[in-house]
Fold:
Amino acid sequence: MRTRKDSQKLGEQWKKGVPIEVLPLAYATVIRKITTSLGGTAELRMAKNKAGPVVTDNGGFIVDWKWDNHGNWMQVNNDIKMIPGVIETGLFVGMADKAYFGNADGSVSERGKKIK
Structure:
C-alpha cells in the first residue's frame, strides 16, 4: 500500500518545495543565487495570520524552493548550505537508514536505504 508521503524520488508527491531557512538580510541574495545556480523558483514564505514573512524560532525567514530536475541531493544540499546567509535546509539528506509510513488503515509500512 502506498501512502501520500511515500515517494520513489524527491518531489514526486510533495509539490510545495524545499524549505530553506535564511538570515533576514540575505533572503533576496539567497533567492537570486539559488535560482541562477540551481534553477527552479524560490520565494519568500509569507505568513497567513500576520503581515510579513514567516519568522522561525531562530529569527530566520523561510524560502521555499521548487526545483526543476536534480539527482544528486547530497551535492544540492551542500551547494545550498554554502550560499552565504543560508542557515539550514529541509532536505535532511542521509540522516536516516529507514522511513516509516502510517497508512490509512492504521498499519505502518517501512522502507530502508537502497544499497548501491
